[in-house]
Design goal:
The structure is a homodimer. Chain A is α+β, with helices and mostly antiparallel strands and about 475 residues long. The first copy, chain A, has helices at about 5-15, 25-35, 55-65, 120-130, 145-150, 160, 225-240, 250-260, 290-305, 315-335, 350-365, 395-400, 400-415, 435, 440-450, and strands at about 20-25, 45-50, 70-75, 90-95, 100-105, 110-115, 130-135, 170-175, 180-185, 200-210, 210, 215-225, 245-250, 275-285, 310, 340, 345, 370-375, 380-385. In chain A, strands 12, 13, 14, 15, 16, 17, 18 and 19 form an eight-stranded antiparallel beta sheet that branches. A five-stranded antiparallel beta sheet of chain A has the order 5-6-10-8-9. In chain A, strands 1-2-4-3 form a four-stranded mixed beta sheet. The first copy, chain A, is globular. Chains A and B meet through strand 9, strand 11, helix 7 and helix 15 of A and strand 8, strand 10, helix 7 and helix 15 of B.
């Protein structure tokens, strides 16, 4: 154990969680102290792994009384340093991975009650086994845990149709900063009696389930510009309604990077186009009706000049290939060199303006910077990434990051957008948020935080 | 003006809102002091009608400094006394009905930004004119205002598909209890940077819009019991998915009351059945496919014995007649005599148990009481109303109300339910909620309330 924690406290922690519940070896603690991208390196006073809600409550109560700061942790897949301790060696990591039971599946109520440490992909599987869909889906789903998804209100690829994580929750069980347990595990579709207690450690949640999709139709449409993507979405909404499940914008440079770096990839069209949208419909009915609907809608859009061309997947293999191209962008961009990433959102109708204005402003200041813009345009959420100019040194490029960020965030802010659409704030954007949120809003957040966590022991140094 | 308010304060209020913004005559103040059902009678120190957010902010700031309590008010259609002042004559009603502008409709972003005083039916109309649907729909829609819907998280007939009011909102503008304006009017589908500021006066909101339904299919299914309604819903979810837009449980006594008291009504079936569900599907596509899908699904359900019989509406007139029967229940029950009403919710899967257990417990204690149970079973939300025994005096019946409530709420509570599904707490259930919410939860609500409203001036005596 770390010498920063009084031996007596260590003994009392062990008495609560047992030997299995303490990560004792310094070497074994490393994965809990550093983030998975190896960008944030902390040192924990201890890493505790409680097995149930009562143990979490007793650990938090003990640490709160001893005025020791705590860092709640799930799968530790944060992209912004929210789930690791700082370098002081004084903070205790409370990792919830052992709390991974599905407590109940209520198919008639379309809910399941799960513990915070459940891995997202496992929950998708459990829902599927009960003939239901749990729609939250994102890159880290094989290792991220639902408690982390909840505390950060994770987004992903199905937000357009099903909403963010917070919209997928009906009830929570939370251990408050003083160790009291708030049991809000109600599977009620309607309940008008309270506030949500979000400032503590989420230990379990009641999640919404949905009808399983029984048919899918997927297409890639070639378009002139982002404005055409917005126009096409409005048209598709009228003909396809809520069947639209995926709607991803892709720029030509994204396709070029995938073709260059990912083996086996090929251009879905005979010629190059400036922009693309990947469209997916899904429906609870079986059969080919959906593919017909998509073909007809895209045919109309081609006729009216909204799109240049389109390919509709005729098989599961073609569908997978289209999605693989979208998913390969991140890896291809990484293989091509370093980049400065921005996960931003604006009203859907302002996406074209966001891309045009940010790109013009960056081109004026950094002529060789390469804009790799793609993402969930149906949610107004763009991954507006800036790749290093081909001839520039990485170190030199990163020196420019503050100015690059400033240019992008100023445009986002002027369009009424958010500088953190789905990745959260954590440590990464703690300073920047002060410029883009009103002083009043930050005061409110601090006041509520202080009311529930008067000694500032719960994940200190993050967000606020 | 009321003599409880210092003349100097009245002059300063007038200076902010003008003569038009003050309801001066005692007689004219009455509709603002009493609720529409004439059950709650208060007396206001003044009734102020600000025309814009700045006026609201200045009024609140002035009253907060003078430590005068305020009651925000919209269409004053609360069912539980939440929107009227108490009898002290010291509280100022801030009525928002003059703030009724639609500030923006952004069809590409599927949002509209509206002021708190907009009447709900007008907002439905504006959305429709822009080729979109605003799905919130409830009995009072011709006079209730969106600010009230938001502050109470109103439910209604479309929750099953589109969610409660709170799920229909992307951003808020709020005047805090000290008069500061929090501008959270962001039309972002993804924004992961804050808490919602819900303890103040909502002055405007960004609302979500949806694809307009272009086809509908409606049916009434006859069933044995509430368990069959739950089973049928699960079946329909698998075949019809999110097309299910309405799903209302109706007991035989409801039909009998409508047939007895509402002129022109007739039984949709040749014989009487113990229970019914009204099912409605809607879709953004045109044509008859939906009616076919519903017929087929109900045919399968009849074959497997889940339902006894069904009628599918073959025309708009037939559809209207089915919905009219559902909507006439409240009026028919009223014409039949007084009743004690309970707006409760439980997990959908527990609705049959709720009805069976509460009815058995009431029958044991009050043999002649008549249970009139109906409502949004797809949301787990039942209007569990108890009509007076035919031979009993109304006054005598109401003496039994506390015990009737106790019996019902104990069953609801034991099933993990809520005693206020969509009507709110207000004054009506302020005492009862103390028994059914945990002390910890009430402490949390009070702590947050106190942080934002330290002098307890914002709608005092309601909820907490």
């Amino acid at each position: 154990m770390n010498d920063r924690l009084a031996p007596e406290l260590v003994d009392r922690l062990k008495a609560i969680v047992g030997e299995r519940g303490i990560v004792a070896e310094a070497r074994e603690r490393e994965p809990y102290e550093n983030d998975w991208r190896d960008q944030y390196h902390g040192r924990a006073a201890a890493v505790v792994k409680p097995a149930n809600t009562e143990e979490v409550a007793r650990v938090v109560s003990l640490l709160a009384q001893a005025r020791v700061a705590m860092v709640p942790q799930g799968g530790n897949t944060s992209l912004c340093g929210a789930s690791v301790p700082d370098e002081s060696g004084t903070q205790v990591v409370i990792n919830l991975s052992r709390m991974n039971r599905v407590r109940q599946v209520d198919a008639d109520n379309n809910t399941m009650t799960v513990e915070a440490g459940c891995v997202l992909a496992n929950l998708q599987k459990v829902a599927d086994e009960h003939g239901r869909l749990f729609p939250l889906s994102l890159g880290a789903e094989g290792s991220c845990e639902i408690g982390g998804n909840l505390s950060t209100n994770a987004g992903g690829t199905a937000v357009l149709r099903y909403g963010n994580t917070r919209e997928l929750v009906l009830g929570l069980e939370v251990v408050l900063p003083d160790g009291q347990v708030w049991d809000g595990l109600r599977g009620l579709r309607k309940d008008n009696t309270g506030y949500e207690g979000t400032l503590g450690i989420i230990t379990a949640a009641v999640l919404k389930l949905f009808a399983k999709p029984r048919s899918r139709a997927t297409a890639l449409a070639a378009i002139d510009n982002p404005a055409a993507a917005v126009a096409l979405l409005s048209k598709l909404r009228e003909t396809c309604g809520e069947r639209i499940t995926g709607y991803e914008l892709i720029s030509r440079i994204c396709v070029d990077l995938v073709l260059r770096h990912i083996a086996g990839s090929r251009d879905p069209f005979a010629q190059a186009h400036p922009w693309y949208v990947l469209v997916e419909l899904s429906d609870s009915t079986e059969g080919e009706a959906l593919t017909g609907l998509l073909q007809e809608s895209l045919g109309d859009a081609a006729e009216s000049g909204t799109i240049r061309d389109a390919v509709v997947a005729a098989s599961e293999a073609q569908r997978d290939a289209l999605w693989k191209m979208r998913e390969d962008i991140t890896e291809a961009q990484k293989l091509d060199g370093v980049s400065i990433k921005h996960d931003v959102s604006v009203p859907v109708s302002r996406v074209p303006e966001l891309i045009a204005r940010a790109s013009a402003a960056l081109a004026a200041r950094f002529p060789d910077i390469r804009i790799v813009a793609f993402g969930h345009v149906g949610d107004g959420n763009i991954h507006y990434n800036c790749s290093k100019p081909e001839r520039q040194e990485a170190a030199q490029f990163f020196l420019e990051a503050p100015e690059v960020n400033h240019v992008v965030y100023e445009v986002v802010s002027s369009l009424g957008g958010s500088i953190s659409a789905e990745h959260g704030l954590g440590v990464l954007k703690r300073e920047e948020i002060k410029r883009y949120k009103s002083a009043l809003e930050l005061d409110l957040m601090r006041a509520i935080k202080k009311t529930l966590d008067p000694h500032g022991l719960m994940n200190p140094g993050k967000v606020l």
